[in-house]
């Protein structure tokens, strides 16, 4: 355990309302922990803060599970699943290229004359 040179400040964030279990909605301390905070030793204060973090995680997980249960999963047919898999699947390099769906614009030159467009005459290995 590290030596503590400074007093541990109160975890209060100014939202001082209690939930149904008596824990503060802001810092998640119990009523006794809030009332006796100044009397606790440094070690006890650290334990209270750890308990508060655990309570906060449990509360968040409970909300997350409740939200997941309220969402109804949609049932998809086999054809819908196959269509999604076809869209998600990466094309094979061995497959012939598919024609593009976009039409070339007038600005794009579609016929490339290899002999005149690229000059490799000064290229050396």
Automatic annotation (TrEMBL):
* Bias (Basic residues) ranges: 55-65
Biased composition annotated in UniProt, kind: Polar residues: 70-84
Question: Region Disordered: start and end of each range?
Answer: 55-113
Which PANTHER family does the protein's record reference? Answer: DUF1289 DOMAIN-CONTAINING PROTEIN, OXIDOREDUCTASE
What's the protein here called? DUF1289 domain-containing protein
From which source organism is this entry? Colwellia ponticola
